[in-house]
Design brief:
Layout lengths: L1 E9 L2 E9 L7 E7 L7 H12 L3 E4 L12 H13 L1 H15 L5 E11 L1 H11 L6 E5 L17 E7 L7 H13 L4 E6 L12 E2 L4 E2 L2 H20 L1
Parallel strand pairs: 3-4, 3-5, 5-6, 6-7, 7-8
Antiparallel strand pairs: 1-2, 2-4, 9-10
Length: 238
């Protein structure tokens, strides 16, 4: 497996993407962006990029906070995330620059690109889809579903799949309805899978704070990943 990093700049600030792919495979291949949780572009996100590389794709963990910026506690993580939750235009700008950065990578098939995101990254994934860029698919894992009241969505390209924990206290039921209404109105091919006993961050083995609402769930993690593998095969072969 080949791994490397690539810097890119948004408004004078440097960001760093992590790229993984199988260098024994010939030619270009589909790419999947990985949008990190509220911690920053951490080991979890990079490991997901490596898992995607093992499936034969180019896995690219993008960076929403800036090179080397990681929250060390909940207060720092919130301080990094909140400005983009409040300014979705800023979030969109950083996402679009990351997306445009991957296009010239020589192993990337620019006509076969998807994005997945976790927690805050789930919102990032959906917001990139809302820009109307050329995506084959968008995957959200225990993400936030609400759109932006003052930032219009363009025609969403590709298919949408979202995974949600029924016991997630951070994403109220009305957000599920909002997502369903938005995607149905936009005539998008969409799916929403709800895991009955799962909380927020159910894919992260380090999540172990049920009082805060975050808890790893091996069943939900495994089931969502199996569906992810099938979904990626579907969108990249149709």
């Amino acid at each position: 497996m080949q791994t490397q990093t690539q810097d890119y700049v948004v408004d004078g600030k440097t960001f760093e993407a992590f790229i993984a792919y199988d260098d024994t495979l010939p030619g270009k291949r589909p790419a999947v962006l990985v949008a990190h949780d509220w911690t920053g572009r951490n080991e979890f996100a990079c490991d997901k990029a490596k898992s995607l590389a093992e499936l034969g794709y180019v896995g690219i963990a993008i960076d929403m906070y800036g090179k080397g910026v990681l929250g060390q506690n909940n207060e720092e993580k919130s301080a990094h995330m909140t400005p983009m939750m409040e300014d979705r235009g800023l979030l969109r700008q950083r996402l679009l620059t990351a997306y445009e950065t991957i296009m010239p990578i020589d192993v990337v098939d620019k006509d076969n690109v998807a994005i997945m995101g976790f927690c805050f990254g789930g919102l990032c994934a959906l917001d990139l889809a809302r820009t109307g860029v050329n995506l084959k698919g968008t995957l959200s894992f225990h993400g936030f579903f609400h759109g932006s009241d003052n930032l219009a969505s363009k025609q969403i390209q590709g298919k949408i799949i979202a995974f949600h924990g029924h016991k997630d206290p951070m994403v109220p039921a009305e957000q599920l309805t909002m997502l369903a209404d938005e995607m149905t109105t936009a005539n998008v091919d969409w799916q929403l899978h709800v895991f009955g006993n799962a909380m927020h961050a159910f894919t992260n083995p380090l999540a172990n704070d049920p009082d805060f609402g975050t808890l790893y769930d091996a069943d939900a993690d495994n089931r969502s990943w199996l569906m992810t593998v099938d979904f990626l095969e579907e969108i990249f072969t149709v």
